[in-house]
Each structure stands twice: as C-alpha cells, then as structure tokens.
C-alpha cells in the first residue's frame, strides 16, 4: 500500500509512544528510557506538551489513501522537529524519567547541549529531535518522506538545521545533506556510546541561483 505523510494529532500520541519504544533499542535509550509504564507515561506527557507548542512539528507516516485514512490506522513512522525559537525560562527543574538512569540522562543531555552550543553558537537553526520507523517497515521510504518534509520546511526558511545521530542513523541524515561536525560519548557498562553532532547548512535552490 502507498505511504501517506500527515501532521500528527493529539489522538495519535498513544501510537507514537508505542512506536518510539518499539523502535529505539540502543544501549543509551534502554538505560535512560526503559520500556516500563512510568517512563511511557513520562514520554506521553512530553509529546502532549510538544504538540501544543507553535514551533514544534509532529509528522506521521501511515499506509493508505488520504480519503480513507483514520486516526486508528497504523502509524509506521513519525518525526518531531522544531523551528528556531527562544525557550521561556520556567524556573522549574527538568523532569526526568525517574525509572531510568537519571544520572546518565543528565550527563548525555548536558554533553549534547554543550556540543550544540559550541557548534551552532548564535545561529538560528531547526532541531530534529526524533525520526523513528518501526523496524518491520524500514527501507520502505517512510523515513525519506519525513526527511523530505523536514528539509522542505528548513529550505523555505533558508536556515540551518541540527541533529544528534546514532551511528545507525547517521547515513540517513548524510543523504539529506547533514555533515558530522563533532561527537560526544557516554560510558555504558564500561563501553563508550557515541552520538554524532550533525549540521545541515542553508540550501540555495536553483531558482534563487539564477
């Protein structure tokens, strides 16, 4: 069946939670966000908060024609990204999934935040936070549909974009123009786990070049 890209809705969030935990099985995700009810509820609330933000986009990929699609249709992939914005200072401490490894989560987020600040500086940029496709539906083009939409929005704005990629995900982002600028690592069971800090520069389309 053909694949269809659409904006995700609040009613989709339970499916997005399932998809996330059925897709991401890296050592760091299993440690900081184990697939247990309290962590799933934490992630559900996080998505509910994100979908209300005007600068955050949540897109989904489903099978079937547009006229026949229903909220109950299986979502096989989704992505979350945000446009440039200034995050308001709430004064509240960050909420972490306490059933996971909070210390490791804080360490990874701290290193990722520092690297992004060093790489991007004051440049306004889009941030790609999640790109997930159910394992049984990978290599069907769902991720490419999501990345094409992301790049379209970024290029229309003429701005930079940034993503932290696992070694497994890095080739996908490279195909869409991202370049690795740095890496950061955390230790998990005495083994280093490394993410790539990737940047996509503003693209100039052929019409603008003329």
TrEMBL record:
Keyword Lipoprotein set for record: no
One Pfam family this sequence matches: Acetyltransf_10
Name assigned to this protein: Acyl-CoA N-acyltransferase
Keyword Lipid metabolism listed: no
Domain N-acetyltransferase as annotated: residue spans: 1-203
Entries under PROSITE patterns matching the protein: GNAT (PS51186)
Cross-referenced PANTHER family: GNAT FAMILY ACETYLTRANSFERASE, N-ACETYLTRANSFERASE DOMAIN-CONTAINING PROTEIN
CDD domains: NAT_SF
InterPro entries: Acyl_CoA_acyltransferase, GNAT_dom, Trichothecene_AcTrans
Matching SUPFAM superfamilies: Acyl-CoA N-acyltransferases (Nat)
Gene Ontology MF annotations: acyltransferase activity, transferring groups other than amino-acyl groups
Superkingdom: Eukaryota
Entry keywords, A to Z: Acyltransferase, Transferase
